[in-house]
């Protein structure tokens, strides 16, 4: 569930050459959009791998194969570039979650009703996966920088609140959780906090073996909590 | 459960003027130790508030009220200072956890057996609290920088692994969890991952109201899991 794959799906959906809308497009505008998209993806990758201090507009431009002038045309300041990249990360995460939901409901899985056997474990594993890839690493760098960089702080906080709400809504839907039952809302939230913490634990070392055991256990616990008559 | 308070307790325990060992001490060495301690505490506070990029040796020295020369005598490089500060953060966290455990077992609470009513909720709240203060904010900055700074990476990863093991051991003890029961070990680990994720969610906004509801619900869940005959 890497940023690149999600970005390609996203781009393909919006800019497919066979759609009537695309046929009316200005090729110059298309090239400009493609350049912008490459810069945003490079900014996210750069941030995930090298952190804020080493992610300058010049470094991102070089990585994207774009001239520094063209990069500055699209994003006059470093803050502009990385704020737009936060937005990009947010859209990538939403697209990845939407893809997960449609996949989970796709061919050969219709019998698995929300709450059916194995469904909770599948959804839990897929949601945790979202917090262990490059998208989460980039978002983490931005959260940490936004905690002391005023120019980023308010915008990133607002974005993160929106992403948090959307992730929660998608998790509730995918898990088939009934939030009218007391405690269910907080159970799902706590599980998403756990997924975030597992992402953090994976930052410095490959934590997969431990994570798999924790996720298997907590999928069982969450399954019990969501099925229990309260 | 701030760094300062834990540091003072820690310092008092080791350097109390009335102990026979202190009476044998060289006053010059004591001053040197005090300077070093001030630098470490300033480095942690600086990191928590301003992030890595703005936390230079000069900034930390000024904050500690120490000359730049004295700071460089103790810590020749920036990496030396902040690696030692990581160690300091680790000791602070251990001291805070030990204080929590002895407090929980202190006066008027003897009746609360591990696993007794209310005990799990109390321990869960106190453990989550550890991840929402300045110590966690400083550690988070270090984790994130260590993810791409080679000089810090291996040392911070080793330290974090050690702290993780110690936190887990203390949580098991405080919760009265029986790890010979299948799943109990992973339940406690997942709960600590949740606490870490809650700390992260508190980075950009004051998340206390939501966190309190999540913690109350997950304390109930963990209590059920730990009491259940497996």
UniProtKB/TrEMBL annotation, chains A, B:
Residue ranges of coiled coil: none
SUPFAM superfamilies: Homeodomain-like
Annotated region (Disordered), positions in chain: 1-34
Pfam families registered for this protein in UniProt: TetR_N (PF00440)
The HTH tetR-type domain, residue ranges: 33-93
Superkingdom, natural source: Bacteria
Biased composition (Basic and acidic residues): 23-33
Keyword DNA-binding: yes
UniProtKB keywords: DNA-binding
DNA-binding region coordinates: 56-75
PANTHER family, alphabetized: HTH-TYPE TRANSCRIPTIONAL REGULATOR PKSA, HTH-TYPE TRANSCRIPTIONAL REGULATOR RUTR
UniProt protein name: TetR family transcriptional regulator
Lineage: Bacteria, Bacillati, Actinomycetota, Actinomycetes, Kitasatosporales
